[in-house]
Write a structure and sequence with these properties.
It catalyses: prephenate + H(+) = 3-phenylpyruvate + CO2 + H2O. By secondary structure, this protein is α/β, with parallel strands linked by helices. Helix content is 28%, strand content 29%. The structure holds prephenic acid.
Length: 311
Amino acid sequence: MIYTYLGPAGTFTEAALMQVPGVDAAERVPSTSVNTALEKVRSGAADFAMVPIENSVEGGVSATLDAIATGESLQIVREVLVPITFVLVARDGIDSLEQVHTVSTHGHAYAQTRHWCEANLPGHDFLPASSTAAGALGLLDPENHYDAAICAPLVAEQNSLNILRRGIEDTAGAVTRFVLVSKPGRIPVPTGNDKTTVVVPLPDDHPGALMDLLDQFAARGVNLSRIESRPTGEALGSYFFSVDAEGHITEARMADALAGLHRISPGVRFLGSYPSVGRSPNATASVARHNTDEAFAEAAAWVARLKAHLG
Ligand SMILES: O=C(O)C(=O)C[C@]1(C(=O)O)C=C[C@@H](O)C=C1
């Protein structure tokens, strides 16, 4: 099995990948962007890609949300949570914050440390990097001329980088959620605490269009854990919704909600049902009687009996 991830080695994405059982013995190939990682799966160059999808402070990772919403279909088979903390590392010879004028890191990492940077590095310039590890390792390259980088403590320690400050995140306790993506195939079996991800284009713009979509979940007692709108890129005002819902496609209420979504928006894309980690919604226990698999089966059998008397 070949696993790719947003690299180079030392990214938070690699830390997420290392949580997957058996991955330490498998081939791991870094990619320079989320898009490249997903393309490797589409082309068959890799079996799986680990990519960031959501951060508890910064929200959705647009690069991932957009790349899995379009193009050849992909499937999410697992999610992983990684606690996030950042260090500020500097080029050799720099030993005080006053000497730092340019800082490089991933845009998402900068967004999570912006207030600290504004308070402690007044007037600094920010240089976007393809990942936190790429920004940090760039300090070792004499071709690069920035002073410091923001990265994970691990990459700093593994490369003996000059750590100026630890714990520079604006919000303590932040978490990033990553997803392991494959080509569409077998859906992971339900565990009783699962998540289903879909991408839904809004088919026609009318008052209540979003309400119609949400109603498919609400009417069947399906709780949502994330909903985001992203522009389709076709025209101003044209959006799709990326949705995580609590439950598995094998559960009747979820299957019925997905069927309802498909009637409203035939372009809906199923991105997978997979075990949920972290916050346990206790999905099965909180399902009202009328939304259980048994209630759906009884109701379908009742309608079938009525229809048997036709003509
Ligand atoms: O640059 C990295 O180390 C990544 O794994 C990417 C990423 C992200 O895209 O959100 C992952 C976790 C942190 O929130 C910051 C950056």
